[in-house]
Design a protein that fits this description.
By secondary structure, this protein is an alpha/beta fold. It has 2 domains: about 130 residues, Urease, subunit C, domain 1 (Roll); about 290 residues, TIM Barrel, CATH 3.20.20.140. The strands form 3 sheets. Strands 1, 2, 3, 4, 5, 16, 17, 18 and 19 form a 9-stranded mixed sheet that branches. The chain has an 8-stranded parallel sheet with strand order 6-7-8-11-12-13-14-15. A two-stranded antiparallel sheet has the order 9-10. A hairpin with a 2-residue loop joins strand 18 and strand 19. About 55% of the residues are buried. Bound molecules: zinc ion (ZN).
Amino acid sequence: MQSAVLFSHIQLVTPLPDGPVLSLSNAFVAVADGQILYAGPFEDAARQQLTEAVGNHFDTYDGRRKILWPAMANAHGHIPMTLMRNQADDANLHAWLFDMIFPREKHLTPEHVKNGTLLGMAEMIRAGTGTAADMYYFSEAVVEAAVASGMRLNVCFDGKAEGPDGKTHVQPGEIERFIRMCRSVGAGRIEPALLVHSIYLYEPYLYQELAQVAVDQQCFVQVHIGETAREVSDCLATYGRRPAVQLSEFGFFQTPTVAAHCVHLDDQERSILSGANILVAHCPTSNLKLGSGIADVKALLAAGVKVSLGTDGAASNNNLNLYQEMKLASLLAKGSTGDASVLPADDLIRMATLTAQQGLGFARSGCIATGYQADLQILDADRPSLWPLGEPNAALVYSSEGSAVESLMVDGQWLMYKHDLQTLDEEKIKHDALRSAARLNRMT
Ligand SMILES: [Zn+2]
């Protein structure tokens, strides 16, 4: 249900589409019918907009000692892998994936996937994330969980099966059916995408089929690119080209694409990824934990690449908390370049909100301004770790923690209100996820 709310006397922080990140104290924000009707310094203007829209039928949210800013978007992850949290640690990516993860995933069922997704969504909502990207299997179960949660989701569909020749082929009819299903159940909150795991998992003919079906269906593609040095050297050995170049050669990047990781790139690849419809998902925690390296975000931004943030899955992070990713991304960029002015707080705020939302297909989200969708979070600044608040933009990136989020709204609907989840039954979700995790992790 969409709420009508007047947020009063609140600290507003928001990126603007063509300008700086705005910080306005003692602001008023009016929300009704899923839209931001007003955001600015004048209470009368906010009240007038609300009265015209809904008469007197609106709530007031006292914003003193609170920060209102856009709900964040997690641009890369494998949400059901919450079931493998703290089960596959201290191994490099190749050993982690092939020896620890794939053996568990052989036993996955749609029920496991749904239980793990609901758990991940509860975790993300609690930490201020209203939109996520998901790359996994049993996508119908993931969509079902997303619809129940109210979150926005850019969701992959595998769309491959064994053909009469005994080889794996793309199934255009199945992909079309999935896209139609997402459009019909999603109420604008679900964006379908095609799963292209990486350059190292399929045979060449399959990449050509995948690129062709993405163009035919005009759908998003989600893909890992340049995650490890080994991926690059293997790709050079197999194809004589680096991953992004070879994917381009296969016909990718003609439709909107989410490129995860992008740790090991050269200038030619950065140039390819600077295309208007490409979003890079920087996943600093996962890249460090799997020993993969540090993405050169400064070089990506200098090349004109749109960079967002992702947690990756909880099997390699081990949480889904974008506050941690913002801080780590900024610190890594400063430490690795020796330049503390690189990736200032405003850049992280924009990456985690407006840039990510737009790149995931939600063009009217990620900004608190008239006409944008009401996707927002309220942070409680009345706690020792945020006291005295100082510069609010810096506080969000450098001293906030996910647990300080007290409310989250998506499309005008409360998903969490004053620390209570509104759409999900957290105790049941924890119980079901524990059961699924026990089964899955016992299998190995
Ligand atoms: Zn990933």
